[in-house]
Amino acid sequence: MRKILVANRGEIALRIMRTARKMGIQTVAVYSDVDRHAPHVKFADEAVHIGPAPSSESYLVMDKIIQAAKDTGAEGIHPGYGFLSENGEFAQKVTRSDITFIGPRPHAIEVMGNKLAAKEAVKAYDIPMVPGVDKAISDVTLAQKIADEIGYPILIKAAAGGGGKGMRIVDQSASLKEQMERAISEAQSAFGDGSVFIEKYVGSPRHIEIQVLADTHGNVVYLFERECSVQRRHQKVVEEAPSAVLTPEIRKNMGEAAVRVAEACDYVGAGTVEFLLDENKNFYFLEMNTRLQVEHPVSELITGIDLVEQQIKVARGEKLSFTQEDLKIQGHALEIRVYAEDPMEDFLPSIGTLSTYKRPEGEGIRLDDGFEEGMEVPIYYDPMIAKLITYGASRDEAIQKMISAIDNYHIEGIETTLSFGKYVCQHPAFISGDFDTHFVKKYWSKEIYDEGLKAEKQIAARIALHHYLESQKKVVVANTLESNWKTNRS
Ligand code: MV4
C-alpha cells in the first residue's frame, strides 16, 4: 500500500495520517465545505472535497468516498471511528472496488453490530455472560417468567442498540409489561428493529474493555485493558490503562476471553471487547466494537505499540511480529476527552472561535487534537476537540502529570470540559481507584464543584498567609479548614 485515503476528519484523521507518513505511505484527506482549511486537509498529501457540511451529505456518503479513492489512486481506506467505521456495507463496497478496507471483514462488523447475533456467535467459546436471554423476546408472559427466574432488577436492551441507547431498568414484575412495550416501540423507531432482550441488571459495574489485534494468519493477541468507567450519559470522559483494580489473574482471564470473542467472528485488525466487572470482580461480555476506538492511545502508551501501524500492516496481509508473551504493561496512561461543552451548564455544547489555543508540552504528555488557534469549532460534528493523554511510571504520576498538563492547556473563546477533567483527577474516589460507572452522577454537580473551588481558594489563601508569616518570622495559627469536597450526593 503506497497511498491511503482517510475517510474521517479532526484529530483521528490527523493521527492516522501521521502514522501513514511515518511508514512512507502517501495520504489522501476528504473534506466537507466547513473543513476546507482544517488541519487534516493541510497535513495530507492530497485532499478531495466531498460535499456540504452535514455528514449525511459528505463523510457518510460511501460512493463519494470510494470515488475519491479511485480518483487519487488510493489503495486503502482507513475509516477512523464514527462515520462509516462500523458499516458492513461500506467495508463490502470498498473491497468490491478493489480497495483495501483497513479494518475487519464485513462479516465481523455485521455480527458484532447486533447484540443478539454477537451472543449467538460467541456461544460455543466459553465467554462469561450476564444471566439473561439470548433471543429477541416480545411475548410479555414469557418475559415475566424469565424475569422471575433471573430475579429483579432486570435490564431490557435493544438488539440493534449501542452505547446505552434503548436500555430500560425494570425493578419489579408489575412494570415489566409497560416497559417492554415502550422499549420495543423505541427500538423500532430508533433502529428500525424492534428486537429486545432481557438481562440481569448489574447495579454498580465498572466498564473495562480489552484491546485485541488479529492478523489474517489466525494470530490474535490482547493488549490488556482500558478502564472506562468514568462516563457521563454513555459518553466516556476519562480512560486509563491499566485498570486500578484488575489482578494479573483477572487480566489474563479477561484477555483470553476477549481473544476468543475475536476468534468467534474471524476478526481481523484492531478491535475492542467490552466487559462489565461487578462488585465481586466477576466479568461479563457486553459487546465488541469493530473499530479503532477514541481511547486507543492509552493502550499504545503502556504497550509501546502503534495500533494504526498494526492495522495497516495487518491490512497488507503481514503477520503480527510479536506474540502474547512479548507484550508487557509498562507504566500507566490516562486520557481525558476535551469536549466543546460547558460543564457548568449541564454540558451544553459551547460554540465559538478558539481565540486562544495553547497546548501543554512536556515529557509524558501526548495531545491528539485537530484544531489551531483562531479556528471555529463546527457545530456539525462531534464536539470532542482533543484528547489529552499523560503517561507516568505509576498511576499517581500519570494523574499528577494530567493535572499540570490541564493547567498548562489554555483555551479561550469556548467552554471546554478541561476543568471537569481536572475535577475528576483530584477527586478522592478517582485517586483511590474506588469508583464505578456511577462516578459522574454520584460526584458531579455545579454546586459541589463551586464549593470545591471555594475550598481551593481558602487553601491557597492559607498557604499565602503561611509564607507571609514565615517571612515575618511569626508562628502560623492552627489549621481549622475542613475539606468542603462533598461525597456521595446524587
Ligand atoms: C449493562 C449494565 C448493567 N447490567 N448490562 C451501557 C452501554 C452498553 N454497552 C451496555 N451498558 C450497560 N449494560 C447489564 N446487564 C450497565 C450498563 C451501563 C454502562 C456500561 C458501560 C459503561 C457505562 C454504563 C453506564 C450505564 C449503564
Brief overview:
The protein has 490 residues and is an alpha+beta fold. It is built from 16 helices and 22 strands.
List the main descriptive attributes of the protein structure presented here.
3 domains, 22% strand, disordered C terminus, binds ligand MV4, 16 helices, D-amino Acid Aminotransferase, Chain A, domain 1, alpha+beta, Rossmann fold, 4-stranded antiparallel β-sheet, 490 residues
**Overall spatial form:** globular
Number of helices: 16
Which strand order spans the largest sheet, edge to edge or round the barrel?
3-2-1-4-5
Mean pLDDT: 93
Low-confidence stretches: 474-490
Give the number of domains: 3
From the 3D coordinates, which CATH architecture of the largest domain would you assign?
2-Layer Sandwich
How much helical structure, as a percent, in the residues? 25-40%
Bound heterogens, unique: ligand MV4
Strand content: 15-25%
Which class do the helix and strand fractions yield?
alpha+beta
At the third CATH level, what is the topology name of the largest domain?
A: D-amino Acid Aminotransferase, Chain A, domain 1
The N- to C-terminal Cα distance equals 53 Å
The CATH superfamily title of the largest domain: ATP-grasp fold, B domain
Radius of gyration: 24 Å
Number of strands: 22
Name of the top-level CATH class of the largest domain: Alpha Beta
Largest sheet: 5 strands, parallel
